[in-house]
Amino acid sequence: MQLFKDIYQATDTWPRLQAFGLVMDIRRAAMDITTNLSEGQVDPGRPEFREFVSMSQDLVTELQRLLLAAREHPNLNAASIEPLLQQTADLRQQLQGLAATLP
Questions:
Q1: CA–CA gap between residue 103 and residue 96 (Å, rounded)
Q2: What is the pTM of this model?
Q3: 29: which of 9, 10, 44, 90 is 20 to 30 A away, CA to CA?
């Protein structure tokens, strides 16, 4: 959830016209990660929970790619994106650990 909040806070400072599509995609991916995990946690014992975790892992990869693209955008502060990339890397490790514990 912290990553989601940080993404929204960071993208609020980005130029609207130059990065509009990128902002929308980044925010959607961050929201979808949170949503998938929330939906899956309704009953973590269900076999479908593994699918929710897997979808979240895919979305973390998508979010990382979008943040890497944003880092190359000429009107965005690349240094402000680095902490978000670190958070996605940390989340990736957490999700891998969680997936390893699931049946």
A1: 13
A2: 0.87
A3: 44
96, 60, 71, 64: which is closest to 19 by C-alpha? 71
Q: Which amino acid is at 22?
A: L
15 three-class SS: coil
pLDDT (tens digit per residue) in 29-67 = 999 998 988 887 776 667 788 889 999 999 999 999 999
**CATH no. for residue 91?**
1.20.1440.60
Query: Count of domains in the chain?
Result: 1
Amino acid at residue number 88: T
* Three-state secondary-structure class, residue 72: coil
- Tens digits of per-residue pLDDT, 66-88? 999 999 988 888 888 999 999 99
